[in-house]
């Protein structure tokens, strides 16, 4: 059954309120559309954990920099709605930008610490836009839970922080990265890749695997673990944006992984002109 398509904040608030009044548990999956199996897995998990699943499909302009790909970001609303239907989504909020940011809009959300470094340093203002739109969506829907993929790991930590700090009362659930059979993390931006760049992009997951293998062999120093991942990027001819080993919660850089400590390695690199990210837990 095709999901109900909601175009305005007012009708979305009314729909979500009707779900809550009926005593049903609501899960929300925020997306920018051009859905892939990673998004669909979040929706299916939402169905498992709640009575009703809603999604948003909104290419959020406030999280794109002036030289980024807002105008060409891939869009396919018809295909997205079919995927939502297959996952049991009951309603989709698909607004135009002016509905989310009407004339006179002036309020933004800044999550200060976990948004520093990594993608936050390379994409100024990005997490301000993410935090703002997610806060708005959580306030509009007031779901009991919201699901996000771990592929955008820094984003997930930003969202966890804003929910906690603003006392929004929503359970934030992070789900493991969904990968192609060859290991490439699923991403809407993979559509930009040429066949050659698509093959070269596998160096991101290979680099993470190399670092994990080195850790399992007994290495704990960040310089060696990062070096293992970096060599894979260099061998494939990718242009590194960053390779960092950080604390899995605070995202602060680590000189080494201590006993029982869970770290996260995050990588970003360009395959051709396409910037891709990936990450993996290490240690713990």
Automatic annotation (TrEMBL):
Residues of the active site: 39 (proton donor)
List of residues binding ATP: 32-39, 149-152, 178, 186-189
Note: The reaction proceeds by a bi uni uni bi ping pong mechanism.
Pfam families hit by this protein: Pantoate_ligase
Top EC category: ligase
Subcellular location: Cytoplasm
Family: Belongs to the pantothenate synthetase family.
Binding of (R)-pantoate, residues: 63, 155
A GO molecular-function annotation: ligase activity
Pathway: Cofactor biosynthesis; (R)-pantothenate biosynthesis; (R)-pantothenate from (R)-pantoate and beta-alanine: step 1/1
Assembly information from the UniProt record: Homodimer.
Amino acids binding beta-alanine: 63
Enzyme Commission numbers on file: 6.3.2.1
Keywords annotated in UniProt: ATP-binding, Cytoplasm, Ligase, Nucleotide-binding, Pantothenate biosynthesis
Signal peptide positions (record): none
Protein name as catalogued: Pantothenate synthetase
């Amino acid at each position: 059954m095709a999901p109900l398509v909601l175009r305005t904040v007012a009708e979305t608030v009314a729909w979500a309120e009707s779900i809550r009044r009926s005593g049903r548990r609501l899960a929300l999956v925020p997306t920018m559309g051009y859905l892939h199996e990673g998004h669909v897995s979040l929706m299916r998990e939402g169905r498992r954990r709640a009575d009703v699943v809603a999604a948003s499909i909104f290419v959020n302009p406030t999280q794109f920099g002036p030289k980024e790909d807002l105008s060409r970001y891939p869009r396919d609303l018809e295909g997205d709605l079919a995927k939502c239907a297959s996952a049991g989504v009951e309603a989709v909020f698909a607004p135009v930008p002016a509905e989310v940011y009407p004339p006179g809009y002036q309020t933004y959300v800044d999550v200060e610490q976990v948004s520093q470094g990594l993608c936050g340093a390379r994409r100024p203002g990005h997490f301000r836009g993410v935090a703002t739109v997610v806060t708005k969506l959580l306030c509009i829907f007031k779901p009991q839970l919201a699901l996000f993929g771990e592929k955008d790991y820094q984003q997930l930590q930003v969202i966890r922080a804003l929910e906690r700090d603003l006392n929004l009362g929503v359970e934030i659930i992070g789900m493991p990265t969904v990968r192609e059979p060859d290991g490439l993390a699923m991403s809407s931006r993979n559509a930009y890749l040429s066949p050659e760049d698509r093959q070269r992009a596998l160096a991101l997951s290979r680099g993470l695997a190399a670092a994990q293998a080195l850790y399992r062999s007994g290495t704990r120093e960040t310089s060696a673990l990062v070096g293992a991942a970096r060599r894979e990027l260099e061998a494939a001819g990718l242009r590194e944006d960053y390779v960092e080993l950080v604390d899995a919660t605070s995202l602060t850089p680590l000189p080494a992984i201590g006993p029982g400590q869970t770290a996260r390695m995050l990588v970003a690199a360009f395959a051709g002109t396409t910037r891709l990210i990936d990450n993996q837990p290490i240690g713990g």
